[in-house]
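The material for today's practical consists of a large collection of protein records. There is nothing in a record beyond a sequence line and a structure line. Backbone structure tokens are a discrete shorthand for how the chain folds in space. Nothing more is needed to start thinking about how sequence determines fold. As an example, a complete record with its sequence and its structure tokens follows.
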Amino acid sequence: MQTKKQESGSITFSILMILMLLVIAFLVYMLMGGELPKKTKTIGVTSPSQNLYEDKSDISGGEFSDGLINPSFSEKYSLDEFGVGIASKEIFDYDINDDGKNDRITKTKHENGTDHFWYEYKIEVNQNGNFIDVTPSGFRTTEGADCALQKLKFIFKPDFRVIKISRKWEESWVKPTMAKKTTYAFSGKNLQEIESENLKEICDVSELF
């Protein structure tokens, strides 16, 4: 009986020694800079194409866009020997007054043989197949090599609006002047100014959109 008790005590002592060695080894590992394995949680896998889509604004460098995409008509034209004339024309089909019929926005680029040019916009609503011009006065840009004095941006949701930001020329093309923001929306059948406010003095109004 005494022999069995001695054997049992010897086994218990051996187990305790093994556990103690494991604890010591663990402590040494932690002191040497080891880390416990971390659990990882998979939220979702994003493909490279999805990344390109999500980061599209960053890839483009945040450049100004007038909001018009996917023209139904697009054509480029030849300028005269002085680089003057209509350079291009695009037509966009949008239902801008929510009557279920496609209306029309025409964007025309004009060159004058210098670093300055402009885009002219024409807005027409579809009334029983007849396109009626509802373009407010001054719906064109004023562009230069260093600064833009006037730009327009078209917004379609939740309601159709056009934002025009412009400033006056003073002394030189690049001298900052006070910029004014004007918002247009439909009031009845007409596209009218609904809001106007001064923003700040700036050279390139593109930066304020």
About this structure: The chain is about 20% helix and 40% strand. Residues 67 and 154 are 5 Å apart (CA to CA). Residues 35-61 have pLDDT under 50 and may be disordered. Helices lie at 2-31, 48-54, 56-59.
